[in-house]
Design goal:
The protein is α/β, with parallel strands linked by helices. The strands form two sheets. The chain has a seven-stranded mixed sheet with strand order 9-8-7-6-10-11-12, with helices on both faces. It has a five-stranded mixed sheet with strand order 1-2-4-3-5. The chain contains 17 helices and twelve strands. It folds into two domains: 183 residues, Leucine Dehydrogenase, chain A, domain 1 (Rossmann fold), CATH 3.40.50.10860; 165 residues, NAD(P)-binding Rossmann-like Domain (Rossmann fold), CATH 3.40.50.720. The structure holds NADPH dihydro-nicotinamide-adenine-dinucleotide phosphate and (2Z)-2-iminopentanedioic acid. The site of NADPH dihydro-nicotinamide-adenine-dinucleotide phosphate has 25 residues, from helix 9.
Length: 449
């Protein structure tokens, strides 16, 4: 394991997030390797950490003033042992190959846990949709798809949304794919309802996150009723995490974006959440406007000179990081403990640094790692693929019930794997082990390819 890690670091020293994601999985699966000594000769770790294919391309586009810009496009096709590559597209200025590889690597194990047949991939661009007109976003998406369309397909690789890619972008991407290939297929998920999208897909990541947390609470005879919750982010995952917490009787007191966070001690009720959805999804505004509209709330701007994020210092029972990677560091982890938090369920991918995870485990928190807790999004993407293949659409209740069942199954799988490998109650080890074992067995079945 040490050898594999040092080789990865030597080969691509700048890919820090990728190293972090790999290191966590390798640490967890040590007991699996101990039970299967032949894995060393079969170079299982080297194979699972090397993408099957990386596509990197130029994306030229023209802004509304006629100025040409060039961005970089990526698709990392990490592992197809369990099915077609599946995973989102992220449009954010921070996107680089290391971040794409970390997300694609996480996706492989997450998809493995969903019980569905999906390999893992991730893509995106360093394009920043913020402040761009709809026409600029459309031209960018069309240029991006002009290249990506050569590499994807309903049985090859099926992208979806992630940060900066929502219903608007999926529409533009799908339109261009259809024009170039002259076929109407389920090549993307997260489509609008009237042209092939699945009910509950927009809600799925956030709802699934809360279903997973509810399962962790139920293990201890508890429910969401009366629980005070910290949520970060204010995009897709944060909005529907908040919605489901409210529905189950909990109270959400924070939301954030990259500029700052709001604290509303009275709680973000359904009306206030409707305002957030309008603000973020239609007006594409900033979360600071929440505190302008609701005077009882306070707005705290981000301060990069701080070594901690004050959002995590508020008193609460549960925390739901739903913004981005490494948003909770070791110090924030300690703040959570001091504020009374007993449960962390990750809507975002890898939002906790290794130091924060150590704090959770040392303090016996109920900790649902992203690849288990946020797997509901890609799971319903899988259900969208099934519906597209059958050319029919299931009712809302049916998809929601399937999502609930899948989250329950993931929860159980994590617990069983943890117990089986001597780390009872450790969801992060359980998720990594169960995800890993299924992918490795499939890879070995399929030979050296
Ligand atoms: P959105 O683009 O809808 O929202 C992202 C939110 O996070 C925004 O509030 C954004 O603020 C904030 N944010 C993004 N980057 C940063 C940053 N560097 N620092 C601080 N805040 C930031 O994305 P999603 O809600 O879809 O994604 C959120 C997280 O959930 C990501 O980690 C994603 O990978 C993960 N995820 C998403 C799934 C999905 O189905 N969409 C499925 C599983 C996981 P701002 O507007 O200022 O950028
Ligand atoms: O990180 C993720 O799981 C997603 N962004 C969703 C991927 C998908 O294919 O729905």
């Amino acid at each position: 394991m040490d050898q594999v890690m040092s080789q990865l670091k030597e080969k691509d020293p700048e890919q820090r997030e990728f190293h972090q994601a790999v290191e966590e999985v390798l640490e967890s699966v040590k007991p699996v390797l101990d039970r299967n000594m032949e894995y060393r000769q079969l170079a299982v770790l080297q194979r699972i950490t090397e993408p099957e294919r990386v596509i990197l391309f130029r994306v030229p586009w023209m802004d509304d003033q006629g100025q040409v810009h060039v961005n970089r496009g990526f698709r990392v096709e990490m592992n197809s042992a369990l099915g077609p590559y599946k995973g989102g597209l992220r449009f954010h200025p921070s996107v680089n190959l290391g971040i794409m590889k970390f997300l694609a690597f996480e996706q492989v194990f997450k998809n493995s846990l969903t019980t569905l047949s999906m390999g893992g991939g991730k893509g995106g661009s360093d394009f920043d949709p913020k402040g761009k007109s709809d026409n600029e976003v459309m031209r960018f998406c069309q240029s991006f798809m002009a290249e990506l369309s050569r590499h994807i397909g309903p049985n090859t690789d099926v992208p979806a949304g992630d940060i900066g890619v929502g219903a608007r972008e999926i529409g533009f991407l799908f339109g261009m794919y259809k024009k170039l290939r002259n076929e109407f297929t389920g090549v993307l998920t997260g489509k609008s309802l009237s042209w092939g999208g699945s009910l509950i897909r927009p809600e799925a990541t956030g709802y699934g996150n809360v279903y997973f947390a509810a399962e962790m609470l139920a293990e201890h005879g508890e429910t969401f009723y009366g629980k005070v919750c910290l949520v970060s982010g204010s995009g897709n995952v944060a909005q529907f995490t908040t919605e489901k917490i409210l529905e189950l009787g909990g109270k959400v007191v924070t939301l954030s974006d990259s500029s700052g966070y709001i604290y509303d001690e009275a709680g973000i009720d359904a009306d206030k959440l409707a305002f957030v959805k309008l603000l973020k999804n239609v007006r594409r505004g900033r979360i600071s406007e929440y505190a302008e509209k609701y005077q009882e709330a306070v707005y705290v701007p981000s301060d990069s000179s701080l070594d901690h994020n004050p959002l995590w210092r508020h008193k609460a029972d549960c925390a739901f990081p739903c913004a981005t990677e490494n948003e909770i560091n070791g110090k924030d982890g300690l703040s959570l403990i001091e504020g009374g938090v007993r449960l962390v369920s990750e809507g975002a991918n890898m939002p906790s640094t290794p130091e924060a995870v150590d704090v959770y485990l040392d303090n016996k928190l109920l900790y649902g790692p992203g690849k288990a807790a946020n797997a509901g999004g890609v799971a319903v993407s899988g259900l969208e693929m099934s519906q597209n293949s059958m050319r029919l659409s299931w009712p809302r209740e049916e998809v929601d019930n399937r999502l609930k069942d899948i989250m329950k199954a993931i929860h159980k799988t994590c617990l069983h794997a943890a117990e089986d490998y001597g780390v009872k109650g450790n969801y992060v080890a359980g998720a990594n082990i169960a995800g890993f074992v299924k992918v490795v067995n499939a890879m070995l079945d399929q030979g050296l390819v």
